[in-house]
Amino acid sequence: MTDPRLFVFGPGYSARVFADALRADGWRVAATCRSEEKKAELEAQGIEAFLFDRGRPLADAHAALAGTTHLLVSIPPDAKGDPVLDQHARDLADLRTLDWAGYLSTTGVYGDTGGEWVSEAAWLKPTGERQKRRVEAERGWLNLYRQYGVPMHLFRLAGIYGPGRSAIDSVRDGTARRVDKPGQVFCRIHVEDIARTLRASMERPTLGAVYNVADDLPSPSHEVVEYACRLLGVEPPPLIPFDQTEMSPMAASFYADCRRVKNDRIKRQLGVTLAYPDYRAGLEAQLAAGL
């Protein structure tokens, strides 16, 4: 049996938590990066590192991917498309050691449902350019499965949070705001529950499957900030009406859509039990851990 090896295109926040958990279990892990400095940093941590970016494919894809049993792609598409697909689709199609592959997408592909619940069977109606690119990238990855048998799985992630990237952190550093847009809710997922879901999929692969990865409690963002303040024992920032709030176009775009995302499939098909079924559990655990 081939020793398991995970190859990660783009070891960002979620992918890195997942990769580190596998490394702790004795897995070999390889990942891409965009600079020599980052390459040296990853290698110092025991991760094989390879330079990759749009316009700079893997120097020797056959050697870099050799022995890969599991693949995770977390690089978002750009204006030209998906850089991994564009430069290495054929290399991945030819990879005979691959048992499982995952693509980290976003629940943004569903667009605005006016707060209604959506499952994986819902029509994709992206409202923004970034979300439209995601839909095209998803199609490309699924085509790689349908045409060449690459064992793809798609994971549509809700808003990601966890230590270093939570309401507790934003309250501590003074950047937290309570924005009120009546009727607006956001779906979230703790980074450790993303890793838990990916691991469950690896243990129960269903080729071509699509999974929503979200917790059980869609909530307004201002309630999350208020709860973090309560845990920290500080006064919450003032509640500001959305139409009176100054924010970047990207930040404002998150308020353009309102939906509730069903997570039944990861529970039913993969047997996932969320460690943090709502933001309260996630924030409480972070504070209890001293993070």
Q: Strands, helices and their partners?
A:
Elements lengths: L4 E5 L3 H12 L3 E6 L2 H9 L3 E4 L9 H5 L4 E4 L9 H11 L6 E7 L10 E2 L10 H20 L3 E6 L1 E3 L5 H6 L5 E3 L7 E3 H13 L5 E5 L7 H12 L6 E3 L7 H5 L6 E2 L2 H7 L8 H10 L3
Parallel strand pairs: 1-2, 1-4, 2-3, 4-5, 5-7, 6-13, 7-11, 8-10, 9-12
Task: Give an overview of the whole structure.
The chain is of the alpha/beta class and 291 residues long. It has a domain at 5-161 and 189-215 and 261-274: NAD(P)-binding Rossmann-like Domain (Rossmann fold, 3-Layer(aba) Sandwich). The protein has eleven helices and 13 strands. The protein has helices spanning 13-24, 36-44, 61-65, 83-93, 129-148, 167-172, 191-203, 221-232, 249-253, 264-270, 279-288, and strands spanning 5-9, 28-33, 48-51, 70-73, 100-106, 117-118, 152-157, 159-161, 178-180, 188-190, 209-213, 239-241, 260-261. Helix 2 (36-44) links the parallel strand 2 and strand 3. The protein is globular.
Question: Could you give a quick summary of the protein structure above?
Answer:
Helices cover 38% and strands 18% of the residues. With 291 residues, the chain is of the alpha/beta class. Keywords: NAD.
Highlighted features:
two-stranded parallel ribbon, 291 residues, alpha/beta, 13 strands
Strand percentage lies at 15-25%
Outline, from the CA principal axes? Answer: globular
CATH topology of the domain at 5-161 and 189-215 and 261-274: Rossmann fold
Number of helices: 11
Gyration radius from CA atoms, angstroms: 19 Å
CATH architecture tag of the domain at 5-161 and 189-215 and 261-274: 3-Layer(aba) Sandwich
Q: Helix fraction?
A: 25-40%
Head-to-tail CA distance between termini: 39 Å
Q: Which sequence of SSEs, written as H and E, runs from N to C?
A: EHEHEHEHEEHEEHEEHEHEHEHH
Please list the strands of the largest sheet in the order they lie side by side: 3-2-1-4-5-7-11
Which class do the helix and strand fractions yield? alpha/beta
The parts where pLDDT drops under 50 for at least 5 residues are none
Characterize the main sheet.
Answer: 7 strands, parallel
Which CATH class of the domain at 5-161 and 189-215 and 261-274 is shown? Alpha Beta
